[in-house]
Amino acid sequence: MIRITGLLLAGLIAGCAPAVASSPGVVSPAANLPDAVYRADLIEELNAARTDPAGYARKVRAFRALFRGDRIERPGETAIVTNEGTAAVDEAIAFLEAQAPLPALRGNPGLDQAAGEHATDQALSGAVAHTGADGSSPADRMRRRGRWSATGEAIAYGPDRAEDVILQLIVDDGVPDRGHRRILFNPVYGLVGSACAPHRVWRRVCVLDFARAS
C-alpha cells in the first residue's frame, strides 16, 4: 500500500503543484509505450476533458468506483491511500458537470521541448519540483523556446497510463487550491507541450507546459 502526497508549490497564472501518486513498484503495459505515442495519448486525454467536461465526468465516476474507503484498489495493483478519499473525486465530478466546454489545446514543439527538458532533468535527479537543476522556473524554460503572454505548468508523478495522469491532475487530491485542475481548464491557454520520462523514485514523471502565444 502506498500513500499519495500532495506537494503545494508556487504556480504561474494559476497555482500548480506536482501531483504524486501510484506505486513505484507496479508497471503497466503503458510504461513501455514510445514517448511520442504516450505524449499524443496524454494530449488526446486532456482535450477530451476540456472539450466535453460533462462527458468526462462519467469517466471520473467510474474511477470513483475503485475506492474502498480512502484507498484506490485496482485488481493486480498496489492499493493507493489518498488524502481525501472520495470527497476530492466528488468535487471533481461536480466541477466537470458545471464546467463549460473549452477549445482543444494545440500541441506546440517549443513547449514539448521545454517540458522535455524538465522531465529529463527530474528523471536524472529524482527530484519533485517545478524548479530545474539550473534554477530555472517553468516560465524560464518556456521562454527559451518561444514568446508567450501567459504560461503554466502541471506535473504528475507515478501513473503509466495517460488516462491516469489526467484523472490525477483533475481530482487533485491533497492540493488545497486544486491548482492542477485550474491550469488544465484555464481558458487563457491555447497551446500545450508535454513530455514524460522514467523517474527514479516515482517510476514516471509527466510534465505538461501550457501557454498563450504573444
UniProtKB/TrEMBL annotation:
Chain residue ranges for the region called Disordered: 107-144
Pfam families: CAP
Residues of the signal peptide: 1-21
Domain SCP: start-end pairs: 61-210
Entry keyword set: Signal
Taxonomy, superkingdom: Bacteria
Tagged with keyword Signal: yes
This protein's name: Uncharacterized protein YkwD
